[in-house]
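Appendix B: a complete holo record

For completeness, this appendix reproduces one full record from the ligand-bound portion of the collection. The bound molecule is zinc ion. The inputs are the chain sequence and the ligand SMILES; the output is the full three-dimensional arrangement of the complex, encoded as structure tokens. No fields have been trimmed.
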Amino acid sequence: MEPWRLEKVSKCFNCGKEVSQIIEIFPNQAYITCSNCGAKRYYIIRRIGIENEDIIIKEKNKKHKYDIWSLSKIAVCFNCKKEYVQEILITETKLIVRCKNCGFTRVYQFHILEIK
Ligand SMILES: [Zn+2]
Ligand SMILES: [Zn+2]
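The structure of the chain with zinc ion bound, as generated:
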């Protein structure tokens, strides 16, 4: 299955450079890889279900050590099968994807960091 692929320019916590971080989201896991140093963060699926917007809002309002990445992508939802805006929120501990049409949400938990 093709992952959803996104990019975000951000300061890498490992090499300290302001470069593209490649985000790849699969149904059961997600990776964020620094395009400069290759440091890779693994997130693993924890929870799947229909959620309202609160799940995103609550996570945004929590205190975080690092900047939260708030992204979106038009993609075909695994649940409603429509091409619709998918909200993507990434923190140091979680990665949340939510379909704005049906509320189908996947919550991934940070697992490990691999440094090359
Ligand atoms: Zn880096
Ligand atoms: Zn949907």
